[in-house]
Amino acid sequence: MSFPPGQTPDVQPSRLSQEFDFAALSPPPEAVDLLLLDTAAAWWEQGHPRDGVLILDDRSGALTLPILDSLISSAGRPGAACAAVEDAVSAVRVLQDELGAELGLQRNARRYELPAPVPQELPSLTEVEPAAFSGVHTVLMHLPRSLETLADWAWLIREHAASDVVVLAAGRDKHMNHSMNQVLEKHFTDVSAGRGRSKSRILTARTPRTEVPAVEPRTQTHQISVPGAAPTELTLCSMGATYGGTKLDPGTRLMLQTAEAQAGFPGAAEAVDFGSGNGTVSAFLALRHPELRVIATDHSASAVQSTRLTAAANGVADRVTTLRDDALSRFADSSAQLILLNPPFHQGNAVDPAAANRLIRAAARVLAPGGRLYCVFNSHLKHRAVLTREVGPTEQLARDSRFTVTVSTAS
What we know:
Elements (H helix, E strand, L loop, with lengths): L14 H4 L12 H15 L7 E4 L7 H11 L7 H9 L1 E4 L3 H13 L26 E5 L4 H14 L5 E7 L5 H8 L2 E6 L6 E9 L9 E7 L7 E7 L11 H12 L8 E5 L5 H9 L4 E6 L2 H13 L6 E5 L11 E6 L4 E2 L2 E2 L2 H13 E12 L4 H8 L3 E6 L3 E7 L2
Parallel strand pairs: 1-2, 1-3, 3-4, 9-10, 9-12, 10-11, 12-15
Antiparallel strand pairs: 4-6, 5-6, 7-8, 13-14, 15-17, 16-17
Helix pairs in contact: 6-7, 11-12
């Protein structure tokens, strides 16, 4: 059954949200997850294709696992033939920006004894046939806070999905705004808002537009001035969900200026840009210290891609190695002499030092004795005590009304 423009199926509680046992899921599903499941079920019950499902940024498996469980059950679980299970898994694609979410989905899949889909790679916007998006019929996603991220997703779907694709984008009412509709309307001719439930709502986008201009990497040029030296000009690039986009983070600027004023990084042959974001630190180090090998690591696939673009834009791609990793898990103990870190100060909308403390502990493990950790953080936070306890003697190098820069030496 097809629906006229502006009309969508009636959404009621479905098997996906009512019959799947979420008790073992960690973290538990949110209201937007249940609404997404019920909305997808309503479309499928009306005859929309059930295969070719793409789930973007499923934070725990709350979307993926009920759909997989339903597909496998319909094939005869328990005791479903291997081919039927493989067909169910291949019908669902999952792409997650944060590595932690990807690993969380795999952990929850093991709890439920379900086969997790193979994680899809974030494509570049110039990729001809990105596997994650090609030919999909249904997309389930949480609306990202960043309109730039939403624009990137919308373009990739519009460009590569099937012509009958239905995009179901969910958000909390308090976080939604009309600009999100406008972004989707640039790529789809039919965008409508569904009825609210549990303070959540679905935007449905259909009918991809033709001749939408290709999305280009966002770029912005900045200068970092260092006392006694010519300013270093950086071209910063950003794609997708990279935190901060193409902005030059003022805390990162202060950290780099301060470290340079301390005579740079003598004795280090390699530097780890821990949480590389848009690649500011990596590109700066490679430009000003060609003797350094730079390893840029971030848990965000978008950030890793943005760091690569920034390194290429500044002509230092051959000296910056990028690595998607969670809290330096792929680095050996006592293997680094130099780490630079601008840790996050919040989880979601709340100020929360737990994420920063976790990264500081990771840096402490990886630093070799005598190795240095340069860190910048909001001045009102109490990170210096944590740095001293976890890493070693910590010296304050700079402080202003907003940021504090320290260097810690591993004991």
